[in-house]
Amino acid sequence: MAYTERALEIAARVEDFVRTVVIPYEKDTRRTSHGPSEELAAELKQKARDAGLMTPHILPDGSHLMHSEVALVLRKSGLSPLGPLALNTAAPDEGNMYLLGKVGSAEQKERFLAPMIAGDARSAFFMTEPAADGGAGSDPSMLKTRAVLDGNHWVINGRKAFITGADGAKVGIVMANSGTEDKLAATMFLVDLPDPAIRIERVLDTIDNSMPGGHAIIAIENLRIPADQILGELHKGFDYAQIRLSPARLTHCMRWLGACTRAQEIATDYACRRHAFGKPLIDHEGVGFPLAENMIDLKQCELIIDWCAGVLDSGELGTTESSMAKVAVSEALFRIADRCVQVMGGTGVTQDTIVEQVFREIRAFRIYDGPTEVHKWSLAKKIKRAHKTA
Q1: CA angle 94-100-102, nearest 5°?
Q2: What is the pTM of this model?
Q3: pLDDT tens-place string over residues 337-371
Q4: What is the DSSP code string of 352-383?
Q5: What is the DSSP track for 114-153?
Q6: N or C terminus: fewer CB in 10 A for the chain?
Q7: Are 119 and 48 a contacting pair, CB within 8 Å?
Q8: How far is CA 39 from the centre of its chain?
Q9: What is the CATH number of domain 123-235?
């Protein structure tokens, strides 16, 4: 793909910033098991502001880069696990900003979106629900959280699970069933956080730790939201989820491709410097070949991301294409991260480099935004429908 001059210029500045400013923070003690601390996040974001790189995928006039341009910029932001946080390109904020930009009213954009673009507010997307409650996970039709109209307010009750960044977020998007008992209809509601009606039951201890606030179990008890805080239109929540879904899947791929590119750099440096049995490790096929396989996988990831981004730029929802990209990229990146760990031996499983963290983060990525198996199942259904039509 031939990237635009605009994308190349922004991406070059982002890469320089991540390599020179952000990477030195990777040993910072303010990185916790539940993500970087708010203090660390604020410090990094101020560095990005000073460099004129806050939220680089959204231009000063509020317009959004094309998806094909975002692909390059976010890949560079992902060269460090801290890069997306510093540059305000991280999930779930990036996806939430995109959705608000597409669906929000002018008043909602001013109140909720503007502070997010400025890097002054983090957000959380309240959709997934606890399995123990029989709630929605990969199957959104299992949505249990209820929204009931009371005068000019909606009252919401339910529980949510794996809510990334809820601890410390200032903006929430809550998905709830606004239909009847026998007819599901989802609506998205905007809410200022913290709110006493939204209680964090616990922040989960998970394999990954790159996202501030971690992943929480949430109880929503009699949350009252005025009707003007409905995002978009009533009962259109599932439609809006589709608007957010494909780009968000793809931007995850972009960021983690950047992280695996860096892991490959570190593993390559190790293999070229470390000697064993009379020669550099890379001269042993058992080490050199995995790095060669990584090179191939990295390029294939880049190409399928760019292909899917082009589909989105054409105006299509890209549901099928983003499913294909999510499966292909998450599985390839896991292979890459695993090989990097193996190439580095004992060093690969230590926190002396970010390779160990990248391996953990990519393992989680194979699950969130739809597990590989769910995407394959969905694709298989589409294949069957297409066969029937043919």
Answers
A1: 105
A2: 0.96
A3: 999 999 999 999 999 999 999 999 999 999 999 99
A4: TSTHHHHHHHHHHHTTTTS-HHHHHHHHHHHH
A5: HHHHTTS--EEEE----GGGT--SS-GGG---EEEEETTE
A6: C
A7: yes
A8: 21
A9: 2.40.110.10
CA angle 268, 270, 271 (to 5 degrees): 65
Contact 312, 246 (CB under 8 A): yes
The alpha-helical segments, DSSP class H, found in the chain are 5-17, 38-50, 67-77, 83-87, 93-103, 106-108, 114-117, 237-273, 285-313, 319-344, 355-365, 372-389
Q: Which CATH number among 1.10.760.10, 3.30.1490.150, 1.20.140.10, 3.30.540.10 corresponds to the domain 238-389? A: 1.20.140.10
Q: Which residue has the tokens 């983690």?
A: 256
Radius of gyration of the chain, Cα coordinates, nearest whole angstrom: 21
How far apart CA 302 and CA 107 sit, in angstroms, is 38
pLDDT in tens, 220-262: 999 999 999 999 999 999 999 999 999 999 999 999 999 999 9
Start and end residues for every CATH 1.20.140.10 domain found in the chain: 238-389
Q: The domain at 5-90 falls in which architecture?
A: Orthogonal Bundle (1.10)
